[in-house]
Amino acid sequence: MARRMALVLGATGGIGGEMARQLTAAGWMVRALTRDSARLGAADGWEGLKGDALRRGDVVGAAEGASLIVHAVNPPGYRNWPQTVLPMLDNTLAAARASGARIVLPGTVYNYGPDAFPLIDEDSPQNPTSRKGAIRVEMERRLRAAAEQGVRSLIVRSGDFFGPRAANNWFSQGLVKPGKPVTVVTNPGAPGVGHQWAYLPDVAATMMALIERESDLAPFARFHMGGHWDGDGRTMVGAIGRAVGRPDLNVKRFPWWLLSVASPVVPLFRELREMRYLWQTPVRLDNRRLVRFLGKEPHTPLDEAVRATLIGLGCIAVDSAARSPEAHETARAT
């Protein structure tokens, strides 16, 4: 039996890399298109192709023979979304038309506005209040239109990413500092406001479980993940404290004021500030459709997921990680 082949755009990123690893583990051939093939580890076993998701010929050529295209590519640091995001998707659509592959898109809550809050299902109205949200709505509109012409797609929406190999997210850029021991957590949320998180290995496992049900998927399929719900804005902080053996870990507020002051000259700060509303009001994705379809959602316990994340980010030494929380407490008391 011939091995199935998947093209992954964004394999050097968080969800793209996790999908590439899980596809490989499941027996798929993985082809990764990247502008810097040197960033792909030789041990990963992927076929690395040098190319640019903004060049249609590169994407169409790389997708030859693929039955799946993971579209996990985004401009780094939120830069140039209007100029790059839609052209990259159009190139993926062209590649899917040529190869017959299904497109897999990691989705977000950016599509939705206050009229859909606080609990959002797959058919909730999409009236975003941000520029990135409007672009996300247009991305999905193009995928839906393409599905009517035979181009299949799968969208899996989830909360804020965190994971051992994910460096470009709120967890690793806001709550903790990669490569440094955790002595304080910076919390972007407001007291008592819930927030939704998604452990990247679970997101990839969910996508894999859906992909294996290809014959049961609609041409334009959409699912929401529940992930980890931090109901009071303190649950994630508590898990970090337990992981490092410091339940009394100091917490400070995220300096939103700094983003406001620096936004005119720092594009990243401007883009982050635009998404502040997701930390000021509870916004939760409803995963009942996913659970009905799969039977259950892949779910790593929060403490296990946070511990693995901190080890991967270099915030906990491996020898320290092997010690139990009780051992940490004993060491601190002596």
TrEMBL record:
Domain (NAD-dependent epimerase/dehydratase) ranges: 6-214
UniProt-recorded Gene Ontology molecular function terms: aldehyde dehydrogenase (NAD+) activity
InterPro entries in UniProt: Epimerase_deHydtase (IPR001509), NAD(P)-bd_dom_sf (IPR036291), NAD(P)-dependent_oxidoreduct (IPR051783)
Domain of life: Bacteria
A family per Pfam: Epimerase
GO cellular component: cytoplasm
Coiled-coil blocks: none
Protein name: Nucleoside-diphosphate-sugar epimerase
Species for this entry: Enhydrobacter aerosaccus
